[in-house]
Amino acid sequence: PPAVTIADASVREPRSATRVMPVRVSLSAPSAFETRVDFATRNETALAGQDYQAASGTLTFAPWTSYVDTPIVILGDTLDEGGEETFFVDISNPVGGTLGTPSAATASIVDDRPPRPHAGGTYWWRVGAPIGFDGSGTTDDGTIVDYQWTFGDGAAGSGLTAVHPYSAAGTYTATLTVTDDSGQTADNWKPRPRSATPDTTRR
């Protein structure tokens, strides 16, 4: 009979509502017969009812199925909880298979950190010439979905990079605002502000 095992899993903590963490339970080889195994969550630093929804039950592998994903619901909050919290998902009592190793998975809930924008600069260029702005130094624990620029002279742009000319000499503060896939927004990247300074003396 096949051995039943379970794999570790991790997910970014949602800031509101909930998010599903799939925890994969696998067979060492597909079987021509139905296989079942019990599962249950167990607290560690993450607590049921506060960080995730407790879950237990029986997983069923249909014939010739090699894995089943167990959906564990993660509860959202905006607290800084020190990087990550963990709980366990245990499997037991296999029917049609044997209990393999590992039979317990560590499920990690990783704090959702705000993005860290980087507007580049300081930029120097001559009046009327286009300046290329670059936000590629921005970092995040997820995915940046929006880049918005203001150039300090009433003009604005969007995108990872932007191009803008200045019509008069001076010092202008170019600000980059980014939004990540969990909806968190942040401006610039310390030290701030970044500035763009067209210079009529440069040719």
What does this structure look like?
With 203 residues, the protein is mainly β. It contains no helices and 18 strands. A 5-stranded mixed beta sheet has the order 2-9-7-4-5, with no helix packed on it. A 4-stranded mixed beta sheet has the order 6-3-1-8, with no helix packed on it. β16 and β17 form a beta hairpin. The protein is elongated and about 80 Å long. The C terminus is likely disordered.
Can you count the beta strands? 18
Tell me the distance between the termini: 78 Å
Work out the strand percent.
over 45%
Question: What's the SSE pattern?
Answer: EEEEEEEEEEEEEEEEEE
**How large, in whole angstroms, is the Cα Rg?**
25 Å
State mean pLDDT (0 to 100 scale).
86
Continuous helix count: 0
For the biggest sheet, the summary is: 5 strands, mixed
The helix content is under 10%
Helix vs. strand class:
mainly beta
The parts where pLDDT drops under 50 for at least 5 residues are 189-203
Principal-axis shape equals elongated
